[in-house]
C-alpha cells in the first residue's frame, strides 16, 4: 500500500514573505551594535587588569556609550515599528500569549520532537518567548546604560542632572567633565555614586544574561535551520522563507 503524504506537506517548495525591510535593518544594526557593546564592555570590566590609564578608561567608556546610543535608538525604533508592522513583525507576532498560544506552543514542541517540525513564516511559538526575553534584556541595558552614561560621562539624557548634583559650589554644571575632580563636590559625588551602584549591578548582570541569551539564540537558529529548513538565516537578508510544509501562521 502506498503511504499517503501528510496534508501539511507542500508538493513543491513555496516562498513566503516573512520579514519586511525595517525589521531586517533593525536585526543587523542591533547585532553589530550589541557585539560592539559586548566587546567594549568586557574590556571595561577588566580595565584594571589591562592597565588602562584614566584617560583610556574615559575614552573606552565613550566608545561603549556611543554604541549604546546606536542600540537604544535602533531598539526604540523597533518598538515603534511593532505597532505598525504586519502579522509577523508587529507585537502580535513577537510576544507570546493571545488566543490559542499555549495550544500552538504545545503543537510546535510535539512536532519538533516527532521529527516533522512545523514550519512558520514568522516566529514559531517557542521563538516568541526567546525574542521577548531578548527584547526585555536589551531594554534593561538601555535604561541602566543611560543612567551610567550620565554618571560616568555626564552625557544626555540624564548627564546634566547628575552634573548639577555633583558640581562644587559656584561651579557651572555645564563645565563638569569626567575626571575633573577640582570641579566636583566630594560629598555630593559620593552620594551620586551610591545612587548609581544598583544601576551598575543590574547592567552587569543583564550583560551576562544577554550574552547567554544571544548564544542560545544563535544555537536555536542553527538547530532550527538544520532540523526544519525554511531558509531562516537567509530570510533575514532577503525577507523571504522557502517552506516545504504548510505554515500554521500563513495568511
Automatic annotation (TrEMBL):
Membrane topology: Multi-pass membrane protein
Keywords from the named record: Cell membrane, Electron transport, Heme, Iron, Membrane, Metal-binding, Transmembrane, Transmembrane helix, Transport
Transmembrane annotation, as ranges: 25-45, 66-84, 125-149, 205-226
Domain of life: Bacteria
SUPFAM superfamilies xrefs: Transmembrane di-heme cytochromes
Residue stretches making up the Cytochrome b561 bacterial/Ni-hydrogenase domain: 19-239
Compartment(s) where it occurs, according to its Swiss-Prot or TrEMBL record: Cell membrane
Main location: membrane
Keyword flag Methyltransferase: no
Keyword Transmembrane helix: yes
Pfam families registered for this protein in UniProt: Ni_hydr_CYTB
Similarity comment text for this entry: Belongs to the HupC/HyaC/HydC family.
The protein's name in its UniProt record: Cytochrome b/b6 domain-containing protein
Species the sequence originates in: Methylocapsa polymorpha
